[in-house]
Design goal:
- The chain is an alpha/beta fold.
- The chain folds into two domains: about 5-105 and about 260-330, FAD/NAD(P)-binding domain (3-Layer(bba) Sandwich); about 115-255, FAD/NAD(P)-binding domain (3-Layer(bba) Sandwich).
- Helices cover about 30% and strands about 25% of the residues.
- It is built from eleven helices and 21 strands.
- The strands form six sheets. Strands 1, 2, 5, 6, 7, 8 and 19 form a seven-stranded mixed sheet that branches. It has a five-stranded parallel sheet with strand order 10-17-11-12-13, with helices on one face.
- The longest helix is centred in the last third of the chain and has 19 residues, at about 305-325.
- It is globular, with a radius of gyration of 21 Å.
- The structure holds flavin-adenine dinucleotide (FAD) and ubiquinone-1.
- Ubiquinone-1 binds near residues 306, 389, 393 and 401.
């Protein structure tokens, strides 16, 4: 059985941010990354791709190009972990052993939980920015939209980038104006949640913009079925049974999401099925040689790449201490819940939400009010952050903007 000092499951944002640094420190071929996909995606770009602002090709790179050169890429899928035996089973039945394990398998989109969604996706005006297969359809359908109901949905589960469900509504509305079809269209955001955004400050800004732009926002309105042939979408109250059917010409769906199922089956999940880690140290609550970050971890904050940047610094610190026998949970590095969601509200305006998911309070980097929509923040998100992602986060040298936040905090108010 092949054996590695460190195995990282998942070659997405979190997996590469960690394996890049640790493969350099632990030495060539001591770290293995298990990742089935031939492509790595910069998913935050998909909101821009769906709105026709960036080409899809900017969001994808071959996995072999982004895999750390000192790490071993195992191109396979994990089906089970035996945490008591430090053993992993792969899809083809092969086994891999580890001394230390990092789980970063992301969140799973459960398309089949909405009746009629799998068959409708990519056809008859139904699309989603949440799949590499349909994100370009979003732009095709926005361009072709001639009026009627344009509906945007948000499910009743945690999702990655909770703002992404509504950002595309603002961008589409902007385009309908430019295309002179806005006058004969209704832009409707139907969310299964009770709020537009979890952090009060940004919820206020988003509500103001929605009102100004005439976007209808309906709370506790959950998509339950799509009848693609009739262009009908059925909504109900979460947990309720009373239905409301809408006709649509355009429907952007954010699917229900949940943890990958093998986590719970392997006995490393919490009650909800996320990898059960200490939210501050990111070490597993039961198996001390397992750590986890990103969308598949139980850390109760917004599932974003920005959060992973901050988590990666903490995780690497604590895991290296653990490996060298110096780890002590009472004075370990602690993750503060930092997350960020760049909220485009138009083709050159953006509210840069930055906050702690643990305290619910803003943690803004720049010495300006980021609750205000700004062209500068739009440009930062569109032109600078992608570069930070590819060249710094994936290479292990970006652990979030905390340093800059601290510098700016010395400026006179
Ligand atoms: P991922 O990057 O999704 O990687 C998980 C990896 O694990 C994948 O490569 C997958 O193939 C692999 N994997 C899964 N199962 C297995 C298995 N069984 N065995 C082996 N490998 C497996 N974040 C922001 O910060 N800002 C934004 O503006 C933003 N916008 C977004 C917009 C959209 C439309 C989307 C979809 C996401 C957005 N995000 C944004 C969220 C961000 O992309 C994710 O939070 C982040 O990529 C999660 O990283 P991860 O490493 O946890 O998972
Ligand atoms: C960030 O660090 C990050 O990871 C690279 C993102 O993911 C795409 C983000 O969206 C944001 C906003 C940040 C935070 C960075 C700055 C410069 C405020």
């Amino acid at each position: 059985i092949p054996s590695y000092k460190l195995v990282v499951i998942g070659g997405g944002t979190g997996g590469l941010a960690v394996s890049s640094t640790l493969s350099k420190i632990l030495g060539k071929n001591e770290v293995a990354v298990i990742e089935p996909s031939n492509f790595h995606y910069y998913q935050p770009l998909w909101t821009f791709v769906g709105a026709g602002i960036k080409p899809f090709s900017d969001s994808a790179k071959p996995t072999e190009q982004v895999m750390p050169s000192d790490a071993v890429w195992i191109k396979n899928k994990v089906t089970a972990i035996e945490p008591n035996g430090n053993l992993i089973t792969l899809q083809d039945g092969q086994k891999v052993k580890y001394d230390y394990l990092v789980v970063a398998t992301g969140i799973q989109c459960n398309w089949d939980k909405i009746k009629g969604l799998p068959e409708s996706l990519g056809k008859n005006g139904v699309t989603s920015n949440y799949s590499e297969k349909t994100v370009e359809k979003t732009w095709e359908f926005i361009r072709e939209f001639k009026g009627g109901n344009a509906i945007f949905t948000m499910p009743n589960t945690p999702i990655k980038c909770p703002g992404a469900a509504i950002k595309i509504a603002y961008l589409a509305e902007d385009h309908f104006n430019k295309n002179h079809v806005r006058g004969k269209s209704n832009v409707i955001y139907n969310t299964a949640m009770g709020k537009i955004f979890s952090i009060e400050k940004y919820a206020k800004s988003l509500t103001r913009v929605a009102k100004d732009r005439g976007i209808e926002v309906n709370f506790l309105t959950e998509l339950s079925e799509i009848r693609g042939d009739k262009k009908e979408a059925v909504f109900k109250k979460p947990g309720g049974s009373e239905e409301k059917t809408y006709n649509y010409e355009f429907l952007h769906v954010v699917p229900p999401m949940g943890p990958p199922t093998f986590i719970a089956q392997s006995g490393i999940g919490n009650a909800a099925g996320w990898v059960d880690v200490d939210q501050y140290t990111l070490q597993h609550n039961k198996y001390p040689n397992i750590f986890s970050l990103g969308d598949s971890s139980s850390a109760p904050t917004s599932k974003t790449a920005a959060a992973i940047a901050a988590q990666s610094g903490i995780l690497k610190n604590n895991l290296l201490d653990y490996i060298s026998g110096k780890f002590n949970s009472s004075n370990a590095a602690r993750y503060d819940g930092y997350a960020s969601c760049p909220l485009m509200v138009g083709k050159d305006k953006l509210i840069l939400a930055e906050f702690s998911g643990y305290t619910g309070t803003p943690m803004e980097t720049f010495p300006v009010d980021q609750g205000q929509e700004r062209t500068s923040m739009y440009w930062l998100t569109k032109e600078v952050i992608p570069d930070i992602y590819w060249n710094r986060l994936l290479k292990g040298t970006w652990v979030g903007p905390q340093k800059y936040r601290n510098w700016f905090s010395y400026l006179p108010q």
